[in-house]
Amino acid sequence: MKTWRPFHVVFCTFACFFVCLSHASSDTLRHGQYLYSNQTLVSAGGVFELGFFSSPSAPNGFLGIWFKNDKNQKPVWVANRNSPLDSDGMVGSSSVLLTIRNDGNMVIIDRRNISYIVNYEALASGNNTTATLLDSGNLVLMEGGNTFWQSFDYPTDTFLPGMKLGLFNINTEQLRKQFLVSWSNTSVPADGIYAPGIDPVNNTQFNVWRSDGAYQQIGLWDGHEFNFFFKSTLDNLNVSSGWKTNEIYVTFSNKNSSMPSWFVLASDGLIYEFTMIGNEIKNVDYSLCDDTMASSSPRCLVRRPSACSERDSFSNVTGMLPSSLFTSWPIRIDPYDCEKFCTIHCSCVAYTYDSLPDGGTICQVYYGNKIDLQKLVGTGNSTIYVRGNASKSDRKLLTATFMVIPLVFFMLILLLWIKCSSLGIYGFRNGTRDSMRLLLSQLSSDDNASCPNITELGKQKDHELPLLSFSFIVTSTNNFSLTNQLGQGGFGPVYKGKLLQHDIAVKRLSKNSGQGPVEFKNEVQLISKLQHRNLVKLLGFCIHREEKILIYEYMPNKSLDSFVFEKTKTRLLNWRQRIHIIEGIAQGLLYLHKYSRIRIIHRDLKISNILLDAYMNPKISDFGLARILSGNECRAKTNRVVGTYGYMSPEYLMHGLFSTKSDVFSFGVIVLEIVSGRKNANFYESDHSLNLLGHAWNLWKSGRAAELMDSTLADSSSMESLVPCIQVGLLCVQDSAEDRPTMSDVVSMLSNEGATLPTPKQPTYSNLTTEVDKPLNQLPSVNLLTFSEVEAR
């Protein structure tokens, strides 16, 4: 037996070697290696550690980086801060993991085997990639020795040495704005309400913004470098700046590398400077106030608006606004609009406006303390309009109040008339109502798994939709530049825009679309109230003369057809992701048909109307042709059939009859297209099937349904779920509407693996082979959405 011992030693050595190959080790993750929820990467010098961490609502829900010596393991960077993972939370569980996929991209996989691409902003071009955690805290993804993605380009709430905050790729279509964004609270890393960075409009300012649009300037460019109003107490920082034609940024380094310092923006708006001395972490906090420490400053950022105790009267003084807390809009607006905005906001203390060289007006609205304002009376040449009275005299305040009562009364009547007519034909003048606050609350709300889904509008308080001025829209889209255009639909062009540091999608309705003021009003009032994670969110709207504009949340991965039908991207969709997308579309339709307050028929459901967010979650869009079934109405009829060939049900195409089963038919077509990677309406196969539905039926009937599968899925699809998914698709495209399942049935069939499904009937073999994206009859789309018989609950 002794002669076999060397063999055992060698065998065990090789076995251990191959086992280690499948797991991450040291500071680097390579292709084929896995980092599970109970494992970490540690930088070469042992400074930083990467791994999974939890929040109260998401066990093992986030991937982050923290200091190795930090006993609290507070993450300095989070990969998926707004999209927590679905995991079982068990210690040592392998339900979530990090790996480098076959296509070279770094992905997080949850217990449903759904992939979240960490580097979705810069995808790999090959599969020879490695991920390394550096001693700087930077996670870099390299290919062939070159870094093509790094976490320092996408900071969260922490400013580390060597990281840059600023504007990059200026004057290009790939402009990147690097800001910090606070956590929503001390334990949840989702986006909060504070964000510091270089002002994109006035690049000489370094500001901290709050989610209501107010900001505090904390630094400025003096022509050589950025100087900050607060100074480090330990004098351990070397702050440097870059001011070039293509980038403007601020960065810093530590004078003593053995005693690192860094900054964190807390969820309450305080800025903390941390320093690690040995294994101890010390900190000092700075408020968003002028040159003062938080612990000694009485004039910190106002977090709660004051009441309108001084009514709506304003007196004017000569001076300047304090720099502590004001909102500025350097856009073309009227002085009247500036006054009106301050009047209807109780927290507005004062306002001023100045003329711009191009004829516009810059409006500045002050939210701070009136005592600070009084100290600057006479120190400037601007006329400041102060709520109540700028002086300390109660007698003068009373006199000023009585002088402006008639004016205030007239303004209130005017504001009431504007509000009542704001959704009418003529709209309102430049939209300066409470729109910025409403829009920012829309933009700041996240859509992650930690938030409950709103599935019954009757139980929710209806929210108000922001009415934005045309000037805001023009500015955000660079005057509707062709370089900003995302696409062209039946209703008109769609542009990418920027508002309040958020990407938006702007749909500018064509004058020839046939959509009038009544239909537009209905869409704004009804579609805006549809709140579901699988429906694109309507953020705001604009009415300006003949212009009618809708503002939606921006979907960075655009439409589903750009993945399913394009050879270069279809390989990015594995089977689990396609199932996830199919289930998401089904959930969105189920909400429209059953759980929304009013039963809504989409009528133009197609693969190009399914948009994908940054994490490939599907969202149904484009409700321009939607109809509402009121009361107990189960179907309706129209004399004008509009829609898209290849997706319309037989009863709608032939007789103009539509119901929830019409959307079910369209859903079935989408399912078969997602599975096969091929379009229905222009499908051709050598077996002479006239469309994709007929081809799928022939394969399923002959027991060869798996042959319908997209060829790129050969290595990732599951035969056990593939064939039932095809069967569900065929059930949805049956000729008779009565034979098709409801969306409740569809969701049940997709979620219950192994369940016995009904046998589908042979679908219609249509000879309509027009391109899928070509509208019927070439007529411009018309919004036929109505709700005249529906009363709000």
UniProtKB/TrEMBL annotation:
This is Receptor-like serine/threonine-protein kinase. It catalyses: L-seryl-[protein] + ATP = O-phospho-L-seryl-[protein] + ADP + H(+); L-threonyl-[protein] + ATP = O-phospho-L-threonyl-[protein] + ADP + H(+). Its main location: membrane. It is a single-pass type I membrane protein. It comes from the Eukaryota. CDD domains: B_lectin, STKc_IRAK. Residues 26-154 form the Bulb-type lectin domain. InterPro entries: Bulb-type_lectin_dom, Bulb-type_lectin_dom_sf, Kinase-like_dom_sf, Pan_app, Prot_kinase_dom, Ser-Thr/Tyr_kinase_cat_dom, Ser/Thr_kinase_AS, SRK-like_kinase. The chain crosses the membrane at residues 50-67, 397-418. One of its GO terms (cellular component) is plasma membrane. Residues 1-26 form the signal peptide. Residues 308-389 form the Apple domain. It is found in: Cell membrane. Belongs to the protein kinase superfamily. Ser/Thr protein kinase family. GO terms for molecular function: ATP binding; protein serine kinase activity; protein serine/threonine kinase activity. Its EC number is 2.7.11.1. The lineage of its organism: Eukaryota, Viridiplantae, Streptophyta, Embryophyta, Tracheophyta. Residues 480-765 form the Protein kinase domain. Keywords: ATP-binding, Cell membrane, Disulfide bond, Glycoprotein, Kinase, Membrane, Nucleotide-binding, Serine/threonine-protein kinase, Signal, Transferase, Transmembrane, Transmembrane helix.
